[in-house]
Specification:
Layout lengths: L1 E11 L3 H12 L4 E5 L12 E2 L1 H10 L2 H5 L4 E3 L1 E6 L2 E7 L10 E3 L2 H12 L5 E5 L2 E8 L2 E9 L2 E12 L6 H5 L4 E3 L4 E9 L9 E5 L2 E7 L3 E9 L3 H6 L2 H12 L3 H4 L9 E3 L4 E3 L3 E2 L2 E3 L5 E2 L7 H21 L5 H35 L9 H8 L5 H8 L9 H5 L9
Parallel strand pairs: 1-2, 1-11, 2-8, 5-14, 11-20
Antiparallel strand pairs: 3-7, 4-7, 5-6, 9-10, 10-11, 12-18, 13-16, 13-17, 14-15, 15-16, 18-21, 19-20
Helix pairs in contact: 1-4, 1-9, 9-10
Bound molecules: flavin-adenine dinucleotide.
Flavin-adenine dinucleotide binds next to helix 1, strand 2, strand 9 and helix 9.
């Protein structure tokens, strides 16, 4: 093992939560190392909906214009089809924010953007191909991480370790943290279909007996999600690719020939849907944020945005104690207090939708699925569409970047 390294904050995981936190702390003058086990940010399809809450953060940091110069699609309205009838369910265009729409952008573009921003600060380091494999413990306190990289095994000592290593978090497991599993009635298959001239432009969700299908406009292709009852993946695969293509052609309302873009099961990625959260997000010296603290249901596409909100709250509450070397357990508990409530509220909204709409739709056989009453009311009273827009777009407790971080306080290292 090579000599231990030391930093003020060591973050395991270069996803939305870890990178955003790293950049904000570095901007505040804290020395940070973000560890990412992969060699780049390119992965299979991941969460790629950037919501108004995240873009408000970008605006507060003065990055929004540059961010929106990256290729993206704007989605200002969400629609759903029940029994062949189209319903408008969320209108984001009236939100009083800098960017009143969802920006559909591949997650790697977002992560590369954050990493580039971080590079502006001398205290910011991303170690790629570096995997956190264990905690360094001392008298019950986390003092650092054991990491593996192409140059070998090493310890990184830190005043604070942040586990932002996603929903399969190794660190939360090593710390023996208790996970509360809320369950989910569905899993999702994700795949792409080419977009063709004449296709309607709007992203859409379609609810039919036994199936739910989502089609997101990604500019030159459709990102599609086929939602089916949990545990039935083997049955879906056993029915064969031809049966799957038939279903896709019907649900996506496209000629069967276009579904032949799915050439094998390799083109279709399984998302094992989970909804869980930690009973406690922190231990002395360790804090979990993002999916490592709470895996979200895909309903509303809020995972990335909640991870970013956790990062903003963490930076706001911890930058000063970290910088001044006086971080306490109470500071970590304050982050949990701030973010546990919006997490629980978002999850309980998702669980209600799972229970009232998704599970019955997936269990239905031949009866046409009727739109739930609140959705029917939204057609008559368009103003009601602003509520789901607010909850999806901004969340329950939107975070704002603390003024000294947003503005830079003069003592901060690097350029703004
Ligand atoms: C198929 C799919 C579709 C999704 N769709 C959406 C969507 O449309 N909208 C949305 O908002 N959310 C969506 N999500 C969820 C969203 O991607 C997550 O909620 C979000 O990325 C969480 O961010 P995070 O930073 O907490 O964790 P992650 O994004 O999981 O990032 C964790 C990072 O840590 C790295 N890592 C893991 N373990 C270690 C280790 N031991 N050492 C070092 N690095 C490690 C991983 O490689 C990864 O880069 C989707 C997820 C999936 C899988």
């Amino acid at each position: 093992m090579t000599e231990p390294m030391a930093t003020q904050c060591c973050i395991a995981g270069g996803g939305p939560a870890g990178l955003m936190l790293g950049v904000l702390l570095a901007r505040a003058g804290v020395r940070v190392r973000v560890l990412e086990k992969h060699k780049d940010f390119l992965r299979d399809f991941r969460g790629d909906t950037i919501h108004p809450s995240t873009m408000e953060v970008m605006a507060e940091l003065g990055w929004l214009e540059e961010f929106l110069a990256l290729p993206h699609e704007k989605v200002a309205e969400l629609q759903a089809i029940f029994a062949g009838q189209r319903f408008r369910v969320a209108d984001l265009s009236k939100l009083p924010v800098a960017a009143p729409f969802i920006a559909m952008m591949p997650q790697w573009d977002f992560l590369n953007f954050l990493a580039r921003k971080g590079d502006c600060y001398s205290g910011f380091h991303v170690d790629m191909q570096t995997e956190a494999v264990d905690l360094v413990m001392e008298n019950g306190t986390v003092r650092g991480l054991v990491v593996e990289s192409p140059s070998g095994r090493q310890s990184i000592m830190a005043d604070l370790v942040v586990a932002a290593d996603g929903r399969g978090s190794v660190l939360r497991q090593k710390a023996g943290m208790q996970v509360e599993d809320e369950g989910a009635p569905m899993d999702v298959l994700w795949f792409r279909l080419a977009m063709e001239p004449g296709d309607p432009e709007s992203s859409i969700g379609r609810i039919e007996p036994g199936h739910i299908f989502i089609k997101l406009n990604r500019g030159d292709y459709w990102q599609c999600a086929y939602v089916f009852a949990k545990g039935r993946i083997e049955a879906v695969r056993a029915a064969g690719l031809e049966a799957f293509r038939d279903k896709v052609s019907w649900l996506a309302d496209i000629p069967l020939a276009r579904a032949f873009a799915i050439t094998s099961w390799e083109d279709v990625k399984l998302l094992n849907v989970k909804v869980d959260r930690l009973a406690t997000w922190q231990r002395p010296g360790l804090l979990c944020i993002g999916d490592a603290a709470h895996a979200m249901s895909p309903i509303g596409g809020v995972g990335v945005n909640l991870a970013v909100q956790d990062a903003v709250a963490t930076a706001n509450l911890l930058w000063r104690p970290l910088k001044e070397g006086r971080l306490t357990d109470a500071d970590l508990a304050a982050v949990e207090r701030r973010r546990a409530w919006p997490t629980r509220m978002t999850q309980s909204m998702q669980l209600t939708i799972q229970k009232r709409m998704i599970a019955p739709s997936l269990a239905a056989t031949d009866q046409a699925i009727k739109a739930p009453l609140p959705i029917r009311l939204m057609q008559r009273f368009p103003v009601l569409r602003r509520l789901p827009a607010r909850l999806i777009g901004m969340g329950f407790r939107p975070e704002h970047v603390a003024k000294p971080i947003a503005a830079g306080d003069g003592s901060m290292a690097g350029r703004p």
